[in-house]
């Protein structure tokens, strides 16, 4: 079936991409490869998902995958949202320190134009 | 140098206020207060317009929001040894004559909040007044306080109160955050009558209904 080939190619592409950018902890890489492997197994042997669905009381294997995917996506969204809030806080801190630092530098060594103006005024 | 009043610093947060900021800063400097203007990453000439002898101008490299700009100014004022800190709006709606009243109120309190409903409002429409009263009512029920005006930008507090009042809400929810921190810290609070003068310019920068939703979101989900 063509769909199986497409799905496997997609998973392989993700795996290759992760492999090229392997600057993370081995644990993260391993988790991703395990997930990809599980996905590949489910594509090659669709019966596995059906049996898992029967086990937990879901009608079809595809439905079970959908439910798990929704929960996973929500988790990922929340994770990145909290990261985003953290980074915003850090950005505020950096911009604030920079603003104050620049103010202090200008006070000690005023920009050329104002220095001359102040000097002539005494 | 102009004679500057003791250790009181006036903090002005400004975003795209190039048209009016110069007059506002000039007024405050003329009265002899220390002034720090925080240009919150404006896209216009706010920083240049605010630059004058007697005023310090700080500049956020990127736009962060009014709450963040106020806290930057407060941090700077504390660095310079401020004993009292006043926050003053950049759009010209506040009167410099009210600053001494706020400072005087600090003799018996840690923080003085301006109240336009105890004082005077000039140039506001009925709907704006109704919205401000509604905002105060909502804010009072959230904070459990009984204020006559919860969202006046003209305030003064002692530097000793500054750590308890630290603003972490970068955008507009900082006003509600401040009230919560006043209440939980047990600081002594007093309301002082002030005069607010609305102009076409300050009205255009005011907060509308959609912003109100955003403020509530920030308040509840980013605290």
Please sum up the structure shown.
With 122 residues, chain A is an all-alpha fold.
Strand content of chain A: under 5%
Rg of chain A, alpha carbons: 28 Å
Low-confidence stretches of chain A: none
**What class would the helix/strand composition of chain A place it in?**
mainly alpha
Number of helices of chain A: 5
* Oligomeric state of the chains in view: heterodimer
Shape of chain A: elongated
Secondary-structure class of chain B: alpha/beta
Strand adjacency order, main sheet of chain B: 3-2-1-4-6-5-7
How much strand of chain B? 15-25%
**Poorly predicted sequence stretches spanning 5 or more consecutive residues of chain B:** none
Output the helix-strand order of chain B. Answer: EHEHEHEHEHEHEHH
Largest sheet of chain A: none
Coarse morphology of chain B: globular
CATH superfamily of chain B: Spore Coat Polysaccharide Biosynthesis Protein SpsA, Chain A
Mean pLDDT of chain B: 90
DSSP helix count of chain B?
8
Give the number of domains of chain B: 1
CATH class of chain B: Alpha Beta
Distance between the termini of chain B: 42 Å
Largest sheet of chain B: 7 strands, mixed
